[in-house]
Amino acid sequence: MPDLVMVIEDEKDIRDLVRYNLERAGYRVSTAADGEAGLKNLFASRPDALVLDLMLPGRNGLEVLRELRGEPLTRDLPVVVLTARGAEMDKLLGFEHGADDYLVKPFSVRELVARLGAVMRRAALEVGALRIDPAAHEIRLRGRPLDLTPREFELLAFFARHPGRVLTRDELLRKVWGYDYVGQTRTVDVHVRRLRRELGDDETMIETVTGVGYKLVPSR
Q: How far, CA to CA in Å, does 1 sit from each of 9, 27, 158, 199, 220?
């Protein structure tokens, strides 16, 4: 299943434009027109990234940022701020409140899609006892760095981005190995066995769902 991006933007034309282009880029998209509804939907749907306007009715974008950065589940959520406020002080406020990137209106939708992909790739992720740092290409379990091959890293990181969701072998091949990969689903089983060995006492966090695939159940 494609990553879910939430867009909180009060201008309908811009909201629809961003949604259209993100969907063309392969993302699922949910939207909200104000900060209050956006926060409610965000905590309910657990998106993989957020595109956020600052000048919103009700709760403004800075208030939204402050609240989501204060919650463990959304502390590391990648956020691209999209706003008409382009003064240096406005940008500094956005970054100080936790924005990962900042685009000023009018903007290029191609640049938005590119920047969103970049912040999602480099965002650190903490799931249970696992901490994934894509920028350092490192995964730690209870503070211990795991000795993983590049493919094992990508596979465990993909599990961590979708905790509790059953992932089929075919989906894992498409999303981790690539859509043009030609091989057997047994490849997934081999890599999962290797991951479990490296996880040691926490090997049960990768559960087998008989006849379907696997899911990650994070341990604390």
A: 24, 9, 11, 25, 26
Specify the residue for token string 């027109």. 33
67 C-beta neighbours (distance < 10 Å), count? 16
To the nearest whole percent, how much of the chain has pLDDT over 70?
Answer: 94
Write down the pLDDT at residue 119. Answer: 87
23 to each of 4, 188, 195, how far by Cα in Å?
10, 28, 33
Q: Residues of 113-144 as b/e, b for ≥16 C-beta within 10 angstroms?
A: bebbbebbeebebbbbbbbbbbeeeebebeee
Q: Whole-prediction pTM value?
A: 0.64
Residue 123 corresponds to which tokens in the numbers above? 């965002």
Q: Extract the tokens encoding 126.
A: 């903490």
- Tally of helices (H runs) and strands (E runs) in the chain: 8, 12
Tokens in use for 173?
A: 């091949």
Whole-angstrom CA distances from 13 to 20, 62, 108, 157, 184 are 11, 22, 14, 35, 45
| pLDDT (average), residues 48-57 | 91
DSSP3 helix / strand / coil % (the chain, rounded to 5): 45, 20, 35
SS3 213: strand
Nearest CA to 60 out of 83, 76, 87, 92 is that of 83
The token duo for 51 is 């595109």
DSSP letter at 3 equals: P
